[in-house]
Amino acid sequence: MKGQKVTVGGWVEDLRELGKLSFLTLRDVTGVAQIVIVGEEGLREVRDLTRQSVIRVTGTVQETKARDFPFEIKSEKIEILSMAVHPLPIDPIGRLESNIDNRLNARALDLRNQKTASIFKIRHHVLQSIRATLTDLGFLEVNTPKIIGSASEGGANLFSLKYFEKQAYLAQSPQLYKEQLTLGLERIFEISSFYRAEKSHTVRHLTEFTSVDIEADFMDYTDVMEILETVITNAFENVERNCLEEQKMLGVEVRRPQTPFARITYQQAILELGREGIDLAVGDDLQDAHLRKLGDLHPGFYFLTDWPMSLKPFYIHEKDDNPMLSKSFDLQYGYLELSSGGMRLHDPRRIRARLKEQGLDPAQFEDHLKAFDWGMPPHSGWGLGLDRLIAVITKMENVRETVLYPRDPERLFP
User: Fold this and answer.
1) What homologous superfamily does CATH list for 109-402?
2) How much is the pTM?
């Protein structure tokens, strides 16, 4: 390496003049290098250079006395490719802290902050792990429409739009499509953006979010819970093993969670909350305050299972030994819901009856239901909020930190 002639490109992170020498810190996505500039011509070239400008340097690798660099490059030629205009809207080095809204307004520049970049490098590894895990388990990756013609799952919180001369909506989940696809593909998964017109101003809600969804034939809800547990633990192991620098940059220590995850029934949760002075009747939904109390009692990953049928969508299957309860679950991390899933009804007559029970018109779901008349196998599945999972892994309190260009009720740009 020593004495080798190299050409490197990146952005100027720092620039220091020391008499007849200048030291330039050059960074790209792979790391950082120190450039030594000597001679009048070289010093003149960088005298007006601004931090964050993009340059290309040709020079020779040599030993260095600097503690932070294993070597340095003695510059022979510098090309200024793009000058950064100052003042910049934020300091991407992180010496001056900016609030999250200012950073999001300059998101592309914010990604030069190594703490911010580390979040998205970890996100990349998590996505790689999820795809590898599900592929190894025999799942096929699919892509379902995001512009839909009917209000799926009852039409709650849907964005509506004009599709030429027709009424259309943005999909809030791939639920109905992924069930149909199991008819021929058996085990499928999708990782994609979905949309929810929810005016929630919290650190965990987004109007556009990334969901990981699976659906599988001939599986009960307990089977897909085990798959979800494997997906989560493999993702943690991948980050633990492959993202050491990113963990250091974020000041976090990622470790594989203990398994198996605890499984707490809805009725057990009601009893636990009752012992904490929160009186709920069977059939009451668990509100944010209730989940926070449960999160205090169970700070890690745990499944909340066997919810009342009255709290679940029309497609969820009831338990064989108690038709008032469902074959369903939520995956929690403390108070935070990460995933929801269960076994689905596959008998079209029972689905039509459930639609009517919930005040929905079966005629609006005929495109969906006709697939069930063609011989639908029993199937189960779940949806996992990727953005929330990344927030858990990176220990970010605000889920917007884990999304490149987040969308919420106020934010539409950039």
Assistant:
1) Bira Bifunctional Protein; Domain 2 (3.30.930.10)
2) 0.95
